[in-house]
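Lecture 7 notes: from sequence to structure.
We start with the chain below.
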Amino acid sequence: MKYFSKLRGRYLTFIRKRTIIILKGVNKMARTARVKDEYGIYYINQVSSEDINLFNDNVDRDKFLSILSTSREKNDFKLYAYCLMNPNEYHLILNANGSDISKIMKEINISYAMYLNHSNNIYKDRYKSTLIKDKENLMLIINKIHVVGKNTASIYNSYCYYNEEILITTDLIDKLDLQLIVKDNCLSRNSECKDCIKTVEDGIAKLNDLAQSKTLTIEELLKNKPLRNDMIRLLRRTSTLSLKELGNIFGGLSESAICKILNGN
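Predicted structure tokens for the same chain:
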């Protein structure tokens, strides 16, 4: 009798260990490996943790675009579309262009997390990536993330910006006829701003007025970096000018330099 009890105990121990091994295997299988293609086009979606906003305001969105631009310059990927309108998530469509997509996204997410400097993890889970394999699917996803941009003109949705060389890689337009996606009557950025400066010429005139009000020439104002940076932030708030146009007004500064100034760097 003692022999059978001992045998039964060994059998139950074996079953428990076997169950644990199987369950571990299931957990490992649940986290599927990413499909990678160094020259593939990816749809990226990142969601924030509960009760944490990825974007509290447009200053945060500007910082994210700055990080995105810096990473693009470093890793030479191609950005085809983006949307940062939802405070709890962002969407990107990018071509790895020979780079490692995991490395790109790790760099972007870590840099942005360091900027937010939150005590808890700001991301709900690792980002989701989908390798887009055909033109039809690509256009479908671009349309999907541009839905917000069709109703609310903003620099934080790429819907209205295929003709501006800010971040978007324009070589995709001709290849995929993306101009068919963008409405002819696309709303102007900051459409709620009734008296915004809308041209570079108006921006230069405004800058000249500001310089005269401080008894300075434009050249003297541009040399005074703290004052110049204040003027850049002012024109950013009161104009529909792109980063490139602002850079041209302020002595040929790059878009990256304008981003850094807007973010207080």
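Points to note: The first helix runs from residue 2 to 30. Confidence is low (pLDDT under 50) at residues 17-30, 173-192.
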